[in-house]
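Following the same procedure, sequence and fold were stored together, as reproduced here:

>
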Amino acid sequence: MKSRLRFLSVVLLFLCFFLLHSQLHAQWQSPSVGVPQSSPDATETQTVVLSGKVAVEGSGDISFDTEVLLVCGSQERARTGTDSKGNFTIQINVPSDSQPQTSQAAIRQDSVSWNNCELYAESSGFRSEKVSLNAEPLNGIVRVGTITLHPVVQAQNAAEGTFTVSATSLAAPDSAKKAFAKGQEQARKGKWAEAVNYFRRAVQVYPRFALAWLELGKAQIHQNDFAEAQQSFQQAATHDNDFMPAYVELTKVAVQQQNWKSLAYATDRIVQLSPQASAQFWFLNAAAHFNLGNIAGAENSAERGLRLDSKHQVPQLEYLYGVILAGQQKYPDAITHIKAYLQMSPRAADAQQAQQKLALIEKMAAVPPSASATTR
C-alpha cells in the first residue's frame, strides 16, 4: 500500500501545479459592509463579473502562485488565481431589487456601487499596482484592465546602472550592470539567445550578481534549457540566501523535472522566509517531503497549509493529508479529509482515483488492526 500511496502523491503534485492556473473564477456574496446594497429587503441577486489581466513589468512571465484579490476597506472580499497568461475573472453575486426597472436612470440607481474597493495581485517577489473600483457603480461585465506587477528587486534606471536589490547585487561593477541592462533590453524584445549572452556576461564579470543569475535562468527557460536554468536559479539563491524570487523559480523547475529533492529545498526556504506564504507552497513542500520519504515533514507542512488555507484555495491539501494519515493507519481522519477533498473538487481529474482510494481506506478501517497487519 505504501508504494501505491507514494505514486498517488506524484499525481497529486502535478494536478495541483496545473490546476493552480485553472481556478479562474471566484464567488463572493455581498458583505454587510463595504459594498452598499440596493435594498435591505432584496431577495434576488445580480451578477457583476470583473475581468482583467495581470502583467509583469518588462513582459516577464506570470508566476504560477499569482492571485488577484478584491479588497474593500480593510476586508478581503474575493480571491482568485490567474491562467498562465495572467487572465483572471471574478464573479460576484450582490443583492438587487426584486422589482425589474426599465428606465436607464433606474438601472443606474440600482447598480452596485463600490466604496473604497480595490483590486491588486499577489505574487512572490513582486509588488502590485492597485485598481480602484469606487469611481463608478458597476453592473454586468466590467473589464478592469491590466494590473501590473513590479519586481521587488528591479533595475530602477538600467541606463544608469542603479538598482534596488540586495547588497550582493548593489556591489556589482558598472560593466556587469551595463551587461545586465542590455540583457533586460533583449529579453523585452523576446530575443532570448542574446539575453542569455548578456546576462552570462554580467555574472562572468561579477559572479555574485544574484539578480543577473535570476534573469539568466528565466531566459534559459524560454530556450527550454531547464537544467541550465536550474543551475542559474541555484546560483542566485547561493549568492543571496534571502532572495525569494530565486526559490520561486527553483520551485517551478523542480515541479517540471519531478525533482523532489530540489523542490523540498526550494519550498523549505520559501516557507522559512515567509511562514505565512501561500498554502500552495506548503502543499508543494509537503508533497516533496512525502516523495522523499520524510513523512513527518510532509505531515507538518500539510497541517500548516491546511491552517492557512481557510478559503480552501488548495483542496489538494485535503487529499494529500488524507493519504499521509492513511499511511499511519489513522483511517477515520484520513477518510474525513479525502471526503472533504471530494466535496470540494467533485469533478477534479483525479476524483475517480480519490474515490477508489477512499473505498480502499474504508475497507481497511473496517478490518481489526491485528488482522490488517496480518494481511499486509
Observations:
- Residues 1-43, 97-112, 153-165, 372-376 have pLDDT under 50 and may be disordered.
- Residues 279 and 305 are 5 Å apart (CA to CA).
- The first strand starts at residue 27 and ends at 29.
